[in-house]
């Protein structure tokens, strides 16, 4: 059991679907995401973060400095100044860090509010992105709680990024001469790049008449000053600076005279705009913004009534999205994650892939081929039409060989050439992503959609052909043992087995072709078995019986290969290195057992019929499980090993070197349900459940409402400490593990299966699940202390043998009672 600590930094408000932070000095910045369509923002509990349109690198609106101190310095800052005394502070605590009499941050679904009070003045700011808009709203309510009148100044501030975040962070000699800002009718327009592109710009507007403004950072802050003590705020008056080069920013100065008890509402709007096509080509040398088309939008969103309507619409939007899957179980932490936070994280991760967080800069990584396909499995039921669009985008980056770019830029949808190819698990994830979509929607028309290779016009073939080539990519790249070649890496990007040195101490070498080399992956073998079976089911849907049989035969053959060459006596081996030596074997001095093949091989069905799966999972429980989750491998690598690559570059217990890589834990949860072990599956689920870990926030450190990528393993001095929160495949896979396998409500190609594998202590649960236009109201009944599986279903009062529900007509409400019986423990 995890040790219980007393320090907490907030609490869940389940009724409002919010996490409430009641002290600003959280162990790490606890963040939220604004927006869910094209315009996005990150905001921490102290208002740190940044905004962008579609692409976090190429359309960055505001600047953020990573690895800063404090960690989240730079963001959406407001300053309140008491003009009578000169005292000033930031209601978000950062960056001034002045003492606050009260503080509260509420992170909700695509919105955040930060409220605080100091010296009898209360300020509450709501941040959100309205649906269908490319802008964000800051609604500020300032209340005078004193017995006397108050004369106040309110200053806003954002620091503009010069659009390309990579260039912004490196090319200072150019960028310090290109910044341009224009102020018109109280609106600040950031138009750097407008001179050369004349097609897009940012704007920052305020609903109140201005006492002044600033757009030059050095002027607003003053020489040798930081955001904690801006010169304009300290003196109580803006400088009306207009940026020409250097570092453009935006600040409005508003005067507020408040009577006792009076509240004033001020609205700020930060947005992105593109010129209409006909206006993009001004006369040469023109620097005048074409802003006629954005003025109506700005004026509309500066109105309090529009803001109120937009915020209500956002709430209704999330009510509708989450309402499609709700559960009531004996465990509060499960309900909280399934009904609210895990589903929400799946949406955010789907939008961002791994590109933009406080740990990912949004510069080096775009949308991941593997990542985005995995994210679909946890997201597809929420907005299937967006999942369909994403699948086609992903497939269009695939090569005609069946190989794939590891990542692509969301704005251009082109593969990142500098990332290259060679992650040989990537192509198979497309099959698994498409299978998840088909199981949820039944929309087989997507298989006939023409999709190009590498986005080359004229190369279009049906999506189904892309799936064929994905499978063939693996079949055509087998190594000496008949196992799939690993290439540069498989799911574990840091396991680089085609790195080698013929002589100890000699420089690092690689094979000439990153997709070649002789290193083999048992993980990809298990994934291939799973993907081949999924593709066989899809082939059956298309009436291609012979092809389906071929794929099943290929899966069976690979299963035999894994059993012969991938089994180590007590668990599945991980791989074979460049020299043909086993990795993840009792023959090794370190790294003897890895988590990934124990999960993926069992997911593919390897070992279920001959007892190997149970033995492998028992080995995981004995050798890899810790109170904070299941570590990636044991023993940890104590020194660097060139033949293994980056994995051994991490200190023991961190990241891929025996860290608790949360992404892989749900594979073991699912595997445990497949062998009927509900108690162990649910135990593993709770060990990394963020809601459960809220009680140890000063150890866990990351947000207690979303999954992190990694928790430090048992070999680390900081065992239990989390890193890299939010953007991780952990979100999707944990949602799948708990909803589809432990609770057992699982979409399949021909219907909805109800096959829970519950912990013995439970007496059942209830769920509402929307599926292909119908609503299923599900009740599972099980005597406490009993384990077992569903023996039969009652569907609208009629007994149905088996556990598969046929697809009901759209609009139908189907009442399902599942009866679980079994021997007492």
Automatic annotation (TrEMBL):
Pfam families: GH94_b-supersand, Glyco_hydro_94. InterPro entries: 6-hairpin_glycosidase_sf, 6hp_glycosidase-like_sf, Gal_mutarotase_sf_dom, GH65_N, GH94_catalytic, GH94_Enzymes, Glyco_hydrolase_94_b-supersand. The keyword Transferase applies. Keywords: Glycosyltransferase, Transferase. This is Cellobiose phosphorylase. Transmembrane segments: none annotated. GO terms for biological process: carbohydrate metabolic process. Residues 17-277 form the Glycosyl hydrolase 94 supersandwich domain.
